[in-house]
Amino acid sequence: MELKEEQVTLRKLTASAGKIIISKETKIDEETGEEVPVVKSKEIYLGKFDSEDNYIEIDEVEEN
């Protein structure tokens, strides 16, 4: 077994005041049958192959 220490860069999206970030990718909510974003959050850490282009920022009141 080998232990390696590596320096990495974290990429984080943070919503502006009064906003929330949602993914462009959607799914169907089984309970309501509505199309909803897969991800919604105030902060999102992007994975290696993820892109900020996969998300949009909306007003918090719109997400309800």
Architecture overview:
This protein has 64 residues and is mainly beta. The protein is 0% helix and 41% strand. It has no helices and seven strands. A three-stranded antiparallel β-sheet has the order 5-2-7, with no helix packed on it. Strands 1-6 form a two-stranded antiparallel sheet. The chain has a two-stranded antiparallel sheet with strand order 3-4. Strand 3 and strand 4 form a beta hairpin. The model has no long low-confidence stretch (mean pLDDT 93).
Query: What is the CA-based Rg, rounded?
Result: 15 Å
> Spatial order of the strands in the main sheet?
5-2-7
How can the largest sheet be summarized? Answer: 3 strands, antiparallel
N-to-C SSE string, H for helix and E for strand: EEEEEEE
Proportion of residues in β-strands: 35-45%
Segments where pLDDT lies below 50 for 5+ residues?
A: none
Structural class: mainly beta
**Basic shape:** extended
Average pLDDT, all residues: 93
| Secondary structure: helix percent | under 10%
Number of E-state strands: 7
Number of helical segments?
A: 0
First-to-last CA distance: 49 Å
List the helices and strands and how they pair.
Layout: E1 11-14, E2 19-23, E3 26-28, E4 35-37, E5 40-41, E6 43-46, E7 55-59
Antiparallel strand pairs: 1-6, 2-5, 2-7, 3-4
